[in-house]
Amino acid sequence: MDAIYENSAYIRSRADASRRSSQSKGQAKAAPCKRTKVLLIVLCVSVVLVFGGLCLLGVLYSNFLHEMSQDMNNTNYEMELEALKTQNKETLRKLNRLNESTGCAVCAVNWIHFGGKCYYFSTVKMNWTRSRDHCVTLGGHLVIINNNAEQDFLTSNVKITHWIGLNDIDIEGRWVWVNNQPLNDSIEFWIKRENGVREPDNWTKDHPAGEDCASLGHPAGETDFWTDAFCFKEKRFVCEAPASV
After folding, report:
1. Deepest in the core among 26, 45, 151, 167, taking most CB within 10 A?
2. In this model, does residue 143 exceed pLDDT 70?
3. Distance from C-alpha of 165 to C-alpha of 143, rounded to nearest angstrom
4. Class of domain 112-242
5. Widest distance between CA atoms in the chain
6. C-alpha distance from residue 144 to each of 62, 154, 190 (Å)
């Protein structure tokens, strides 16, 4: 009988040992699984951070390229402007050599000679500022009108309104030419209407900035006199340069 009890106790102890061994193995297996999950979570977070960093770098690089492109465009414009100025100086130099050999005053192609000056009547329309700058690239400036003869010459060569080199952009009512000389009140050709209304009237109904740039005539077609107009309007223009002698 004692032998049977001893065998039963032995069997239970073996069973208990087997369960403990199984539990230890299960815990040992569970531990690597938890570590794997933690590593996967860390890896996913790292991937997200890396991807976010790459996106940020992409945005910064795109902005850098955009700024570089703008700088290159500005540089190209300045280079083209300088090239035009250089070309114009070379043209004037050749004209001067021609004049020295012929004794005649001449103007560049498409310019008209009058009173010792050359005048260019544009065939394209620009706003006042671009017209002023374009005349400079051609070696001149927007026309400055000094007397009745010059006014008559200009009006006889235009059929629609043209920009001239007169403005009051800086100080309202103080009209100056593009050479910064103030308008001589004894030599002005503003429109004077029969109803008593005259130019310049700084019309602000269509735009609060008012009319700060002068032109020969107005869109209605009359070109014998001056009007003030919105500087952003696009018109033809007249350039002036000294004749080569």
Report:
1. 167
2. yes
3. 5
4. alpha beta
5. 151
6. 47, 11, 14
